[in-house]
Structures are given as structure tokens and as C-alpha cells.
Design a protein that fits this description.
461 residues; alpha/beta; 5-stranded mixed sheet; binds ligand F0G
Length: 461
């Protein structure tokens, strides 16, 4: 087509009204929330970019599929449909539905990990890390060095550092029960992993006889980046690329709330019969019978349909392009973001934007709160609050202090995104006035969800 504008590849059949709380209301709401946007009411947010997880809009075909849900406790028809779609996509033997991604993580790690073991990954997401650490094991991040430098442009910043992985596998031997790769690399900026890197990780896993698991939450976005950036795959359909990615692995954990285009759900899939048997035993204990795993039959239908829609080229073209659109607007205005733009989100480098706020006064929280106060836009800190508390209770700056603006799938239009860009740029223009925070109340794990903050006193910040 001769036109440059990437239009949304859908029309809107049902709408949900937004509320527009004014500045005073927003200030009161944030104060009540202890200056933690996780504790806001959704109704007090104008544009919600807290997460792309479970926040997408389902298609009319998915809503139609809900009515086809078979709610049989055992042997539901919807399970078999779900299983056949997941098997066609991933090629794995055992498909175990779970209520979301972290349930798949918990079941996998609780059934295979022993105290003192180590799981390498490019970057573990927070729930993945927590589910490994709770077993007394270590989650080790081995992303390439380029993946830790926000401003540096590299086509596959989610790649695993192969030398570091080889060293780890040589030195740690039996202490590594499996290797994971997160596609795309959420904690590192929604950055993709190349097929070449996945192949090389596979080769190392073969050499050291380790199973390879994908954290596949955003597999379709990763497949689209491979299509765009790895010439060998330029003519491949996204689904075929995704199948090739899964073919390199022995299993995966999946949150269907992302690239399943569903509001809830996930699965654990693998080829290992013995591991699968243990996993199903645990599943029955905490999630449900193996043919529903904590989901309704209609959820399984919605996910099955979502997994088919998510690999359609017009959808992925629009999805990746519209995220880049926000990134380009912010870059043009001089706002430092992780370059290049990721698949599901734009990550603002809060440490670079607010050099006067030290990491232990949480520049990410300062920026998140300013975005909400300025325009009712809710993002999320991915930095020292999320990752800075070590298992032994000591606090240290995280590798980066980022603010993620995650874009729900098929929910917001270009004008919402133009508004978001205006809000971010307005805050960036008065960056000198932003102050840091201190934590006044905090749980010991996953503290970012429920911690309460207070502004640091003027003289300290
Ligand atoms: N792995 C990755 C890479 C994730 O991004 C998430 C969730 C999970 C696992 C856990 O899946 O939420 O279904 O239990 N990420 C969301 C986010 C919460 O906002 O990035 P879940």
C-alpha cells in the first residue's frame, strides 16, 4: 500500500467510558494510595499503562468463542481445543493449563528445583525470580552487556550472553537443572532474542545436557522482531517463526494474559514425561484438574482463539509499529528511553532523566507519580523498588531505574498515545522539580506491589 499511516487493523464494536479525575482528585487519590500507583483505583486513572497483562481487548471472535465454553470438570471439549492450538504452536507433548503465568512458574520450579540450584536466564521477570528464590535457588541474569545500556541501539538486546552461559554451565555443573530464556525480555526493555541466539543457547544446552525452557509470554512479538531483523526470516509467516522458536526448547511457561490475547490464563508445556507428571500432581493441589487448571472452559476457548489471532501479520505489524510510534515521539523530544523501542512497552530511563534523584530515593517512583499527577497516566517503576531488595534484606540500586509505559493490546488508539506523549514531555520539561521518595512501609518480597512511600524532605532531595 502506498500509505504510511499504520491504522489499527480492527474497528471498535464496544466501548468503555473513561473518567477524567481532575488534578486535585488525582493528588488525593495518590496520597490515599501511599504514593504507590499499584494502590490506586483503576477508575482514578485516565490512560492505564501499568501493564499489558490481561488488559487487552478481546475480538468479537473471542467473545463468540466464550459461548462455546464447555464447563465439564474433566475432559472438557474446550480443553481439547486449547490443547490442540497450543500443541500446533509449540510442538510440546504435555500442555498444562494454569490460571496465569506465575502459576506455571510456581508449579515448574516447585517440582524441579532444589535448594542451592541456579537458573540462568537472559533476565528473570519479578515473579519468575521470586518463584525461584522461594525454593532457595538462585535466579541468575545473563543478558548480553548491550542489554544493560539503555541508550545503546542493538537489534536483539534480549540475547543471552553465550560466553557467560557457557562459563556458568561449566562451573556450576549439576547445580543448573534447566536454562530459561525470556522472549521478549520484559525486565530488560521488552527487547527481542534472535533465532541465532536461541539456536546457540540450544547448542550449549545440548552440550551440557540441560533442558531449555522459554518464558514465552510475548513469543509473537519476539517472532515479529525476528522477521524484521534477521534476514533469514524476512519471508516467513510469524506463526512459522514462533514454531521454530519453540522447536528449539524443551518446554515453556506462558502467561496468556499477554500474547494469548486473553484477560486471564496461562500454561506450562513440556516434553519431559516425569516432570509433567509431577507438575500435574501439584496442579491438582493448587490450580485444579489437569483439563482446566484453574480456568473456566470459556477462558480456554478465548485463549485458543487469541493464540491464533496474535500471530496474524497485520496485528503484529500494527502492534510493534504503534509501540515504536510512542518511542519515536519521546526520543524526538529528548526523553531518554531504552533504545530501540521494545515490543509491548516504552521504558523511560528515569535515572538518566532525573540525575538529581539518587537510586535509593527511587527516580522511577518520582517519575511514575509525576506522570499520574500531571495527566492521569499510570506507568510502573521497573528499578530499585522492584529489584533492589536482596534476599538477605539488604538494599542496593538495581541495574537500571526505568519507568515502563506498557501498552495494552488493541485498547488505545493513536490519539490516546499522542496524549501520553504530551504528558511525558510536559513532565520531562520540569524534571528539575521532581523529588525522590523513601519507603515508609514495605513487605519483604515483591515489595513494589504494596509498599507505601513518602516524599523525601527538601534538604535531602
Ligand atoms: N514472565 C514475564 C516475562 C512476565 O512479563 C510476566 C508478567 C510473567 C512471567 C508472569 O505472568 O502475570 O500471568 O502471572 N508480567 C506482567 C507485567 C505482570 O506487567 O509485565 P502472570
Amino acid at each position: 500500500m502506498p500509505f504510511k499511516t499504520i491504522i489499527e487493523p480492527f474497528r471498535i464494536k464496544s466501548v468503555e467510558a473513561l473518567r477524567f479525575p481532575d488534578r486535585d482528585e488525582r493528588e488525593r487519590a495518590l496520597e490515599t494510595a501511599g504514593w504507590n500507583v499499584f494502590l490506586l483505583r483503576g477508575d482514578d486513572v485516565i490512560v492505564d499503562l501499568l501493564t499489558d497483562s490481561g488488559t487487552g481487548a478481546m475480538s468479537s471472535a473471542q467473545w463468540g468463542a466464550l459461548m462455546q465454553g464447555d464447563e465439564s470438570y474433566a475432559g472438557s471439549r474446550s480443553f481439547y481445543r486449547f490443547q490442540s492450538v497450543v500443541q500446533d504452536l509449540t510442538g510440546f507433548t504435555h500442555i498444562i493449563p494454569t490460571h496465569q503465568g506465575r502459576a506455571a512458574e510456581r508449579i515448574l520450579f516447585h517440582s524441579v528445583l532444589k535448594r542451592g540450584e541456579i537458573v540462568p536466564n537472559n533476565n528473570h521477570f519479578d515473579t519468575t525470580r521470586a518463584n525461584i528464590e522461594v525454593e532457595g535457588a538462585e535466579a541468575r541474569d545473563l543478558v548480553i552487556a548491550e542489554g544493560r545500556v539503555p541508550a545503546l541501539v542493538h537489534p536483539f538486546k534480549g540475547n543471552v550472553d553465550l560466553d557467560a552461559l557457557e562459563r556458568a554451565l561449566t562451573e556450576l555443573g549439576d547445580r543448573v537443572p534447566l536454562v530459561m530464556v525470556t522472549v521478549t525480555n520484559n525486565s530488560g526493555g521488552g527487547q527481542p532474542v534472535s533465532m541465532a541466539n536461541l539456536r546457540a543457547v540450544r547448542a550449549l544446552c545440548d552440550r551440557f545436557k540441560k533442558p531449555l525452557f522459554l518464558d514465552a509470554c510475548r513469543f509473537a512479538e519476539n517472532a515479529w522482531f525476528i522477521k524484521q531483523r534477521e534476514p533469514e526470516f524476512a519471508d516467513w509467516a510469524p506463526k512459522k517463526i514462533a514454531q521454530a522458536m519453540f522447536a528449539l526448547a524443551d518446554g515453556c511457561t506462558m502467561s496468556a494474559k499477554k500474547d494469548g490475547l486473553a484477560n486471564i490464563g496461562g500454561f506450562l508445556a513440556m516434553n519431559n514425561d516425569a516432570w509433567a507428571e509431577n507438575a500435574r500432581r501439584l496442579l491438582i493441589l493448587t490450580e485444579g484438574f489437569p483439563t482446566y487448571g484453574g480456568l473456566a472452559g470459556y477462558d480456554l476457548e478465548a485463549i485458543a482463539r487469541g493464540l491464533e489471532e496474535v500471530v496474524e501479520a497485520p496485528y503484529l505489524h500494527y502492534r510493534i509499529r504503534s509501540t515504536a510510534y510512542l518511542g519515536e515521539k519521546l526520543t524526538a523530544a529528548g526523553v531518554p528511553i531504552i533504545q530501540p523501542p521494545g515490543g509491548h512497552a516504552i521504558y523511560i530511563d528515569a535515572r538518566a532523566l532525573l540525575p538529581h534523584v539518587p537510586p535509593l530515593q527511587y527516580p522511577g517512583i518520582a517519575l511514575v507519580n509525576a506522570l499520574y499527577l500531571e495527566g492521569g497516566v499510570r506507568g510502573v517503576e521497573i528499578g530499585t523498588v522492584m529489584f533492589g531488595l536482596a534476599h538477605d534484606g539488604r538494599e542496593a540500586p538495581a541495574a537500571m531505574d526505568l519507568v515502563r509505559l506498557a501498552i495494552p493490546r488493541r485498547v488505545y488508539t493513536q490519539s490516546h498515545i499522542d496524549y501520553v506523549a504530551e504528558v511525558v514531555i510536559a513532565v520531562a520539561e520540569r524534571r528539575d522539580q521532581l523529588r525522590g521518595y523513601r519507603i515508609v512501609e514495605s513487605p519483604s518480597v515483591l515489595r513494589h506491589f504494596t509498599a507505601r512511600f513518602a516524599l523525601v524532605a527538601d534538604h535531602a532531595g
